TrEMBL record:
Organism, as annotated: Yoonia maritima
Protein name: Uronate dehydrogenase
PANTHER family, per database record: 4-EPIMERASE, PUTATIVE (AFU_ORTHOLOGUE AFUA_7G00360)-RELATED, NUCLEOSIDE-DIPHOSPHATE-SUGAR EPIMERASE
SUPFAM superfamilies on file: NAD(P)-binding Rossmann-fold domains (SSF51735)
Occurrences of domain NAD-dependent epimerase/dehydratase (ranges): 5-164
A GO MF label: oxidoreductase activity
Taxonomic placement: Bacteria, Pseudomonadati, Pseudomonadota, Alphaproteobacteria, Rhodobacterales
């Protein structure tokens, strides 16, 4: 592939994708609104840009084969912030992709698009949207945007509904973990699968305590290897019995199911910022 674009390159998940993506193309253009991302990998260039600037997105996507879209506020936030970064920003990515002939958008969607579903239902990919926050609502919008641009404009999309792509440090993550290695594998399959149309896929590792059914995305060839069960003994030893009437314990969205709209959900998860450095 000649050119890939990665948005959100300065973020924690973006830091793990940059090097693998350079191996899939001649040129990787990483972009974020941060002033810099430090050293770049061979074949990678960095362009500072804001997703809310459609003209800038058009310039960056010129000549690109695909865009891997991870740029957004990665947490619940006030409505106006979510609107600008996560909704208008996503529209600009898809519209620029269409205008510049980009074949596919690989999108970091989220479990929070369906976060109010009960995890014991083990839903499949056809379960209706049931967002838990403004953040989750924006993911619903972007999945429908991806579907629309495929149906009406022929821009393919893979919407990866990422669960817990972070260190396993709580009982919820035993069923929702997505390891960084499996994240990379999922993005690679979302890029190199010959035909995807509009595809949704759960971003989950091969956990024993799986909370969603990925069988309807089998055509991607995503076969995760890691399993959060290796952390179970230690995690459960430090976890008191959970209240089974608390939506934070019963719903797929975890703490996002109970936070007030506009307030951080990540703060309750204890996510460790272990971004990759070079």
């Amino acid at each position: 592939m000649k050119k890939l674009v990665l948005t959100g390159a300065a973020g924690r998940l973006g830091s793990y994708l940059r090097e693998p993506l350079t191996k899939m193309c001649d040129e990787l253009v990483s972009t974020d609104r941060a002033e810099a991302i430090g050293k770049t990998y061979p074949g990678e260039t960095y362009v500072q840009a804001d997703l809310t600037d459609l003209a800038a997105m058009e310039t960056i996507l010129e000549g690109a084969d695909m865009v891997v879209h991870f740029g957004a506020i990665g947490d619940e936030a006030p409505w106006d912030d979510i609107l600008q970064s996560n909704i208008i920003g996503a529209y600009n990515v898809w519209e620029a992709a269409y205008r510049k002939g980009v074949r596919r958008v690989v999108y970091a969607s989220s479990v929070h698009a369906v976060g109010m579903h009960v995890k014991t239902d083990v839903i499949d990919l056809d379960a209706p949207h049931k967002p838990d926050t403004y953040y989750g609502l924006a993911k619903c919008f972007c999945e429908d945007l991806a579907s629309l641009y495929w149906d009406k404009r022929g821009v393919e999309a893979v919407c990866m509904r990422i669960f817990s792509a972070a260190q396993v440090n709580n009982a919820r993550a035993l069923g929702t973990w997505l390891s960084y290695d499996d994240l990379i594998h999922l993005v690679e399959r979302s890029i190199d699968t010959p035909v995807v149309g509009f595809t949704k896929v759960w971003g989950l590792s091969n956990n024993d305590r799986i909370v969603a059914d990925n069988s309807k995305a089998a055509h991607l060839g995503y076969r995760p290897k890691d399993n959060a069960e290796v952390f179970a003994k230690e995690i459960l030893a430090d976890t008191p019995p959970l209240d089974n009437k608390d939506p934070a314990n019963m719903c797929l969205g975890g703490p996002f199911a109970t936070v007030e709209l506009g307030n951080s959900g990540v703060a309750a998860l204890g996510v460790v910022d272990d971004r990759k450095e070079i």
